[in-house]
Amino acid sequence: MPSAALFRARTLVSLIQGLRASRLPLATFDRTCGASCCCGESRVSLREITFQESKTVMKTKLSFLLAMIFIISGCNSDRKNSSVLNDGNTPKTNSPLPERAYKAELSLIEPLTTIRAGDKQTVKIRVKNVSDTPWLVYGIGVGTKYRVAVGNSWLDSDGKLVTNMDGRYGLPADLGPGRDVEVPLLITAPTKPGKYILQFDLVQEGVTWFHDKGSPVLNVNVQVT
User: Alpha helix locations (H) across the chain?
Assistant: First the structure.
């Protein structure tokens, strides 16, 4: 049983026991001071004790009522959370993202037109989650399965793939729908000069590139000198 549910159950049992223990011991009072007793002082004492214990009972009942409201609302929250966790569109750790989550918008923060052959350069990419599903961070290490990372590929001027094993940089934090983040990506230019297409995309490591799920890529024409 989850700890929250166990706490609510223990609270309920404790309050029920307290409610039972708070019943007025009227029979004891009757034996102490019978109906025909002429002891005014004793009757006053009896009324005072009965009044005080009645207040105790009322407080106990009120506590019981408030606890029941707490328990019922907690159970409703558990059911709601359970339904969210069972939703096929809700991301889960250590698993592929839901199909509807593979929607991104990428933009280059600073323009890049030329780079020397074989040079390394850090470019800044703005990544926006345009899906209705949050992206979870599964880790930032290279080769971390299921992490969402920005990656780049180099294509020749005809669009033929040269390499897609260049830069990788994992998202630094969970990214909710409509949110964006700036990601630094270290790229390495091809060793042969010429005109190239520098292509940026998101990848969920060990699962898929986002463009294979229909998400648009970012293409930048670059002259390698």
Answer: 3-21, 26-32, 40-85
